[in-house]
């Protein structure tokens, strides 16, 4: 009788502990787009890394970066993972946002942002990024990472970016249609849309931004509000532990010890998670793998250069300094570029 009571009591205690643990989990919302380069958070959600830190993380999906930055600044979202843009830096200049970690970026041998030429322009000699001078290049919006990628091409080959006509067409669908109709000469797109564009518009792949040899490690990043960074430090630190476990998984799936592109033993797991997250088949994702630092470290120099470029294009209002935007209480510095 006593033994039965002991087992019953133990079961009640276990149920109470489980219920109490669930009740104590802190609920947070992450604004994010369903892109291959926003990997740390979805992997951490899928693998239970946030739950292990007592965090109940909900991902809220957006089609573009600007609403994510606005949502975090307003307090509707606790964290954001998105491409860096002039809009983000404008909000940051008002003291509302803090950078915590990178998500993905560019590096030689990795394929995040692709440069495509239309069939006619290609036949007329636009066969490499260096040939973009004097051409019309379509992107979704000015002030985005795609726009910055055009700037990096101009910088790499030593001509003013003003000698490229940038045409914002608001959507990938519009870009693909314009490329197919030869009303624009080229485009810069996220790699995951490459095959669709090539098939629908008979586009030609002429290069990858990552192969330009110019630092762009902060293509997309994790951020929070200044308010949460100041007032919810314990939660932010626990979030960062889980997030970095996710970025480590992604890094190890596609990167060798020397920092170069190499398949890792956990690749099938990561591809499965990210295929379900993006809706893109694993074999297609393998063709467009971005670079991700294992710890999500941030290069202050990279961020400062991006801010300076957007300012040079009159796309940032207000003053924002990279070392003030990156929250050193949580972020890890990247001082040696791979």
| The CATH class of the largest domain | Alpha Beta
Estimated structural class:
alpha/beta
Which residues sit in consecutive blocks of at least 5 with pLDDT less than 50?
Answer: 16-22
Query: End-to-end distance, in Å?
Result: 67 Å
Tell me the radius of gyration: 22 Å
Q: How confident overall, as mean pLDDT?
A: 90
**Within the largest sheet, what's the order of strands?**
2-1-3-10-4
Strand content: 15-25%
Shape: globular
CATH topology of the largest domain: D-Maltodextrin-Binding Protein, domain 2
Helix and strand pattern? HEHHEHEHEEHEHEHEHEEHHHHHH
Number of domains: 2
Task: Please identify, by name, the CATH architecture of the largest domain.
Answer: 3-Layer(aba) Sandwich
Please give a structural write-up.
With 338 residues, the chain is α/β, with parallel strands linked by helices. The chain folds into two domains: 25-105 and 217-325, D-Maltodextrin-Binding Protein, domain 2 (3-Layer(aba) Sandwich); 113-212, D-Maltodextrin-Binding Protein, domain 2. Helix content is 43%, strand content 18%. The chain has 15 helices and ten strands. The protein has helices spanning 2-24, 40-46, 49-52, 66-74, 86-93, 119-123, 145-157, 172-180, 194-201, 226-231, 233-254, 267-278, 282-285, 300-312, 322-325, and strands at 26-32, 55-61, 79-83, 97-106, 113-117, 136-139, 165-168, 186-190, 204-208, 216-225. The strands form two sheets. The chain has a five-stranded mixed sheet with strand order 2-1-3-10-4, sandwiched between helices. A five-stranded mixed sheet has the order 7-6-8-5-9, with helices on both faces. Helix 8 (172-180) packs parallel to helix 9 (194-201). It is globular and about 65 Å long. Residues 16-22 have low confidence and may be disordered.
């Amino acid at each position: 009788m006593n033994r039965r009571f002991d087992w019953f009591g133990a079961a009640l205690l276990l149920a109470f502990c489980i219920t109490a643990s669930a009740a104590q989990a802190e609920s947070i919302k992450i604004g994010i787009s369903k892109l291959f380069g926003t990997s740390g958070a979805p992997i951490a959600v899928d693998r239970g890394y946030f739950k292990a830190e007592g965090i109940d993380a909900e991902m809220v999906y957006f089609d573009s970066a600007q609403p994510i930055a606005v949502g975090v600044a307003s307090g509707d979202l606790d964290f954001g993972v998105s491409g860096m843009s002039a809009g983000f830096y404008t909000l940051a200049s008002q003291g509302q946002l803090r950078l915590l970690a990178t998500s993905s970026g560019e590096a030689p041998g990795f394929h995040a942002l692709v440069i495509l030429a239309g069939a006619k322009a290609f036949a007329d000699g636009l066969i490499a990024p260096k040939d973009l001078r004097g051409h019309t290049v379509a992107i979704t919006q000015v002030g985005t990472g795609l726009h910055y990628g055009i700037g990096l091409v101009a910088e790499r080959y030593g001509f003013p970016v003003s000698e490229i006509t940038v045409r914002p067409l608001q959507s990938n669908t519009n870009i693909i249609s314009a490329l197919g109709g030869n009303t624009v000469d080229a485009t810069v797109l996220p790699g995951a849309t490459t095959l669709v564009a090539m098939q629908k518009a008979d586009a030609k792949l002429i290069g990858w931004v990552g192969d330009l040899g110019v630092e762009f490690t902060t293509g997309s990043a994790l951020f929070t509000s200044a308010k949460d960074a100041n007032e919810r430090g314990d939660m932010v630190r626990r979030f960062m532990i889980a997030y970095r476990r996710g970025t480590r998984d992604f890094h190890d799936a596609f990167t060798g010890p020397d920092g170069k592109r190499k398949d890792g033993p956990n690749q099938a797991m990561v591809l499965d998670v990210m295929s379900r997250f993006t809706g893109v088949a694993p074999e297609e994702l393998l063709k467009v793998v971005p670079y991700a630092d294992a710890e999500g470290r941030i290069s202050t120099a990279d961020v400062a250069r991006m801010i300076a470029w957007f300012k040079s294009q009159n796309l940032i209002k207000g003053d924002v300094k990279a070392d003030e935007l990156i929250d050193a209480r949580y972020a890890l510095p990247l001082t040696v570029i791979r």
